[in-house]
Write a structure and sequence with these properties.
ADH-like_N; Rossmann fold; about 25% strand; alcohol dehydrogenase (NAD+) activity; alcohol dehydrogenase; NAD(P)-bd_dom_sf; Quinone Oxidoreductase, Chain A, domain 1; alpha/beta; 17 strands
């Protein structure tokens, strides 16, 4: 079917514009792209706002292997402007309509597939990951650093609460959904002591979510003292010293650690934090998404202390639903809005990436309004 047959809010002949990643440290290439025909179950959104995730920075710097060329960007929110034939339902089985403001899972998958049946839809063999697909002209609008995003059938869609700002909502389908998944894997937290390793965007989200999940104490470990201190505004009750001796004393005084949410991906931190777990403790790793050395772990200690180590890559759709409900309820209790420090226009995406490389920024936003091809693009 053609766009003229679909339910839409598009101007005749309207085209999309995108900034294409060409390789590590290379300039983004501006492209004007046609709006593809929508198949049944597909949705076209006009991108309202996107944020540069740390994994985008890893890809741009070459620390993480990714396809080239590629349309990066997966922390996205958008407004529905066209819908394919038939009815499209969101995660809660409500109809999606033109004009809805939505977010979506960072991947599309076969909901009837074997991995979905196992509860691991993000590992489906046919998974389509937004912001991570090789760029081609069969489905070019697959990432957030563009004026439009073409959502495939099999993507779980979520209507966004209008109470959330763009800056609060954009990281939902990566950062907050990932942490919601980590807490799901950790099990009940009421009355438990939690250690959050890394006080970046993931870590701050973890502090807030564990606090609201009933944790007795929330300790934070980060080599950046300013970031660690920031965690107190997100519910952290103990900021661990960078002195190993003082760290051990602090952990002992709080009664040890029952659950670790590891967001840094730093091998030394991953190894050291395991020493703080109580008998029967659980560690969930979410930060190790880039190339690094192998870990050195004392297997006997893991066995004798009955320690459980779990890894989470991406999340399941229910986690994004949980994250949205959390942020809708608590976005005024914690300063999530302040974590997006600056907003750049899409045409200056290269400058935005340079700016975002500075570690003191949690997120940099991209305002993805349509821009003129006569401008100089960086």
């Amino acid at each position: 079917m053609s766009l003229s047959d679909s339910k839409m809010n598009l101007q005749a002949g309207e085209k999309a514009e995108a900034m294409i990643f060409q390789g590590p440290h290379q300039a983004f290439e501006w492209m004007q792209l046609p709006i593809a025909e929508l198949k049944q179950g597909e949705v076209l959104v006009r991108v309202l706002y996107a944020t540069i995730c740390t994994s985008d920075l890893h890809t741009f710097s070459g620390r993480r292997t990714g396809p080239t060329p590629c349309l990066l960007g997966h922390e996205i929110i958008g407004e529905v402007v066209a819908i394919g034939a038939g009815q499209v339902l969101d995660y809660h089985r409500q109809s999606i309509a033109v004009g809805d403001r939505i977010t979506w899972t960072i991947y599309a998958h076969d909901h009837q597939g074997a991995m979905a049946a196992l509860g691991l839809p993000q590992k489906s063999p046919d998974v389509f990951k937004y912001g991570h697909q090789p760029f081609d002209h069969t489905h070019p609008l697959s990432g957030g650093f563009a004026t439009h995003c073409h959502l495939k059938s099999g993507t779980d869609l979520f209507k966004l609460p209008l109470s959330l700002s763009y800056q609060e909502a954009a990281p939902l389908n990566c950062t907050h959904a990932t942490i919601a998944g980590a807490l799901r894997m950790a099990g009940g937290l009421i009355g438990k002591n939690v250690l959050v390793v890394g006080a970046g965007m993931l870590g701050l989200s973890a502090c807030a979510m564990t606090t609201e999940s009933g944790a007795q104490a929330v300790a934070v470990l980060d080599i950046n003292s300013a970031r660690a201190a920031k965690a107190t505004a997100f519910g952290a009750t103990v900021i661990l010293s960078d002195s190993p001796q003082l760290q051990a004393e602090q952990i002992a005084s709080m009664g040890g650690v029952d659950v670790i949410i590891e967001t840094s991906g730093v091998p030394e931190a991953m190894e050291k934090s395991l020493d703080y777990l109580n008998i029967g403790g659980i560690c969930v790793w979410v930060g190790a998404v880039f190339q690094q050395r192998d870990l050195h772990i004392n297997a006997e200690r893991v066995v004798r202390k009955l320690i459980t180590i779990k890894g989470l890559h991406n999340y399941i759709p229910a986690d994004l639903d949980s994250a949205i409900r959390f942020l809708e309820k608590h976005h005024q209790d914690y300063p999530f809005h302040s974590l997006v420090s600056h907003t750049f226009p899409l045409e200056n995406l290269g400058l935005a990436f340079e700016f975002a490389q500075d570690s003191k920024f949690y997120r940099v936003g991209i305002q993805t309004n349509k821009f003129s091809s006569t401008k100089k693009h960086k």
